């Protein structure tokens, strides 16, 4: 005869398995006392199985998390509430230049990795690390840290963040840090380029200012030259207008001078031999040829002059 016993394995009301027993050696093998003991054992077994599953899941999650942290291209450190390093990935150890076997404190991490404040000759204190601020509940960033080893300087940028549990207590602080040498070099090149560009702009501005001043000076000289040219034309025009009547006056004066020089004696004799009646006629004739208030054109003046000469010739012929 075969005796069988089946019992469920329950944990918190959930079925996680079946308890199976078989006995073909004796009768009455599964008494009430034994069944009660088996039920107690099955309960403990269910708890153990559940814990084993949970432990396996936790180990698998930790393994996946570790793989993930090892795969990221930045250094990662995890600090417990006392500030000790609970975990550091391979990238972090490479950046810090150290392989940490135990769980170093913040001071030990700074001392062994030779972390300095940029531009300073003294080591960074653990209180200056952003991790300490994260353990106080802050999100912290620091980009003024650098690792010095073997004559080489590696500038670092660190980002720290607190990790809270379900009761809002800080249980860890995680810090991510990376080598920012390329960025520092780029910033330096940009700063040098900006300085060069500012100098070039200043030089170009000075050249443009000098060119503008030269242009303004040339413009003033051109304006002055045009003014002098216009003034010269005006003076030449005025001189021409003055010289024309002056030349006519001079010619007339010379003609009169030549006339009197040649005929003065004859004129005197003419007036001396003139009868009183002709002299009276001459006096009456002269007022008619005195300058009139109205103006005459040159053509009219020449015509009057010819008429006067003709009348005088006739008058002289009668005498």
Condensed summary:
The protein has 7 helices and 8 strands; from the N terminus they run E-E-H-E-E-H-H-E-H-E-E-E-H-H-H. The protein has 319 residues and is α+β, with helices and mostly antiparallel strands.
Describe the model.
The chain is of the alpha+beta class and 319 residues long. 58% of the residues lie in helices and 20% in strands. The longest helix has 93 residues. The N and C termini lie far apart (203 Å).
Kindly report the spatial arrangement of strands forming the biggest sheet: 4-3-8-7-6-5
Total count of helical runs of at least 4 residues: 7
The best one-word shape is rod-shaped
Kindly, what is the distance between the CA atoms of the first and last residues, rounded to a whole number of angstroms?
A: 203 Å
Structure keywords:
two-stranded antiparallel sheet, single chain, alpha+beta, 7 helices, 58% helix, 8 strands, 319 residues, six-stranded antiparallel sheet
How is this fold's topology laid out?
Layout: E1 3-11, E2 14-23, H1 32-71, E3 75-79, E4 85-88, H2 90-96, H3 106-113, E5 115-117, H4 130-134, E6 140-149, E7 152-164, E8 170-179, H5 181-273, H6 276-285, H7 298-318
Antiparallel strand pairs: 1-2, 3-4, 3-8, 5-6, 6-7, 7-8
């Amino acid at each position: 005869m075969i005796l069988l016993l089946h019992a469920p394995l329950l944990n918190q009301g959930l079925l996680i398995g079946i308890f199976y027993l078989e006995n073909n050696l004796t009768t009455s093998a599964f008494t009430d006392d034994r069944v009660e003991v088996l039920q107690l054992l099955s309960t403990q077994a269910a708890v153990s199985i559940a814990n084993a599953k949970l432990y396996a899941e936790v180990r698998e999650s930790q393994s996946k998390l570790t793989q993930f942290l090892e795969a990221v291209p930045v250094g990662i450190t995890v600090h417990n509430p006392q500030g000790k390093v609970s975990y550091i990935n391979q990238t972090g150890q490479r950046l810090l230049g150290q392989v940490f076997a135990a769980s170093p404190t913040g001071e030990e991490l700074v001392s062994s990795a030779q972390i300095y404040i940029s531009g300073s000759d003294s080591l960074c204190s653990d209180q200056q690390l952003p991790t300490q601020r994260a353990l106080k509940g802050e999100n912290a960033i620091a980009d003024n840290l650098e690792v010095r080893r073997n004559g080489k300087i590696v500038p670092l940028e660190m980002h720290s963040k607190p990790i809270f549990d379900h009761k809002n207590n800080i249980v860890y602080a995680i810090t991510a840090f990376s080598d920012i040498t390329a960025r520092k070099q780029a910033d330096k090149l940009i700063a040098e380029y900006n300085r060069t560009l500012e100098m070039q702009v200043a030089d170009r501005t000075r050249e443009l200012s000098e060119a503008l001043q030269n242009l303004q000076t040339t413009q003033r000289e051109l304006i002055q030259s045009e003014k002098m040219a216009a003034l010269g034309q005006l003076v030449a025009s005025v001189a021409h207008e003055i010289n024309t009547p002056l030349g006519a006056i001079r010619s007339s004066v010379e003609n009169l001078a030549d006339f009197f020089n040649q005929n003065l004696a004859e004129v005197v004799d003419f007036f001396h031999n003139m009868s009183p009646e002709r002299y009276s006629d001459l006096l009456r004739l002269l007022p008619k040829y005195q300058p009139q208030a109205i103006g005459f054109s040159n053509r009219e003046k020449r015509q009057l002059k010819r008429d006067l000469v003709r009348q005088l010739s006739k008058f002289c012929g009668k005498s």
